[in-house]
Amino acid sequence: MAIGRRNAVTNSSGSLEISGAVAGAAIRQGAAVGGVPNAGSPEVQEVSAGSNGSSFLGFSLGNYSLGDTVRVLTVRGSTVTPIVENNSLLNSGSRVFLSSTNGEVTETAPMGSNRTIIQVGVSSTTDTILLITDFRVRHT
């Protein structure tokens, strides 16, 4: 079973739709999202370092309601405008991590028990990042 359904990455703007998965709740544009199983069916949900962080896939390309099909920007090197914790500005060149708040990112790696520290990218401006999703560290 394929997890994504696109004819070609070059025609997708770096995004994908997870086959059979829909929004499990309202999702904000720019939110960090993941594919989370729910009663045997996949859902796309906003994720954080403390809640389903290990299922992080990328960032929502729009605002979605419960049951909508969600487009997720997921290709490494893509530029995205994420939701930054506390509506803060990013420092250009800084590492950016999933925050402890669902759907949001931060420049400070979250600490505490049962946190998955995921560097999601590097800031390129005060409000955009270059997506780099291959850094994952489990902190217990």
Kindly describe this structure.
The chain has 140 residues and is mostly beta strands. The protein has two domains: 9-73, no CATH class; 79-139, no CATH class. 0% of the residues lie in helices and 41% in strands. It has no helices and twelve strands. It has strands at 15-17, 22-23, 32-38, 41-46, 56-60, 71-73, 79-80, 83-84, 95-98, 104-106, 115-123, 129-139. The chain has a six-stranded mixed beta sheet, with no helix packed on it. A six-stranded mixed beta sheet has the order 7-12-11-9-10-8, with no helix packed on it. Strand 3 and strand 4 (41-46) form a beta hairpin. The radius of gyration is 14 Å and the shape is globular.
Give the structure's gist in a few sentences.
It contains no helices and twelve strands.
Detail the topology: elements first, then pairings:
Layout: E1 15-17, E2 22-23, E3 32-38, E4 41-46, E5 56-60, E6 71-73, E7 79-80, E8 83-84, E9 95-98, E10 104-106, E11 115-123, E12 129-139
Parallel strand pairs: 2-4, 8-10
Antiparallel strand pairs: 1-6, 3-4, 3-5, 5-6, 7-12, 9-10, 9-11, 11-12
Instruction: State the helicity in percent bands.
Output: under 10%
The shape, in one word, is globular
User: Strands across the major sheet, in which order?
Assistant: 1-6-5-3-4-2
Q: What share of the residues does DSSP label as strand, in percent?
A: 35-45%
List SSEs in N-to-C order: EEEEEEEEEEEE
The Cα radius of gyration reads 14 Å
Largest sheet: 6 strands, mixed
Q: Which whole number gives the mean pLDDT?
A: 84
| Tally of individual helices | 0
Contiguous low-pLDDT stretches (5 residues minimum) are: 1-12
Number of domains: 2
Helix- and strand-based class? mainly beta
For the secondary structure, the number of strands is: 12
**Alpha-carbon distance between the two ends:** 33 Å
